[in-house]
Amino acid sequence: MRSNQLWKLPLAASLIGGITVVAAQSVAPQVPILTVLIVAALVAALGFGLLILALVVSSAWHRYGLNHGATDPQWMWFGGEPPGLQRLRRKVPKP
User: pTM above 0.90?
Assistant: First the structure.
């Protein structure tokens, strides 16, 4: 992502958040706007925290796989290595 485009992500998040707050205010008009904003901020913070947690766990899982002989953690989804790599490993003896 280019540095001159970094402003688009916060702008989009703010606009989507604003639309969500307006919708929430119209669904529950008796709730003060400050309460709606606080709840929206807490939900956004929780979502961001879960995203960071998922990135850390995913990184640890991939590192574990690589340290225990996996070729690429993405291949764990397929239950094995690519067929070409399996043939190559059969041809080359391990030291």
Answer: no
- State which residues form the domain around 34: 3-70
Q: If 0-12 CB within 10 Å is exposed, 13-18 middle and 19+ buried, where does residue 53 land?
A: exposed
- Nearest CA among 45, 47, 22 for reference residue 33: 22
Q: Is residue 38 within 8 Å of residue 24, measured between CB atoms?
A: no
- 93 within some domain: no
Cα distance between residue 27 and residue 7, in whole Å: 30
Residue 79 lies in a domain: no
On whether residue 18 sits in a domain, the answer given is yes
Q: What string of DSSP letters covers 9-27?
A: HHHHHHHHHHHHHHHHHHH
- CA 32 to CA 73: how far, in whole Å? 48
Residue 21, in any domain of the structure = yes
Q: What is the DSSP letter of 92?
A: S
List pLDDT tens digits, range 30-67: 988 888 888 888 988 999 999 999 999 988 988 887 78
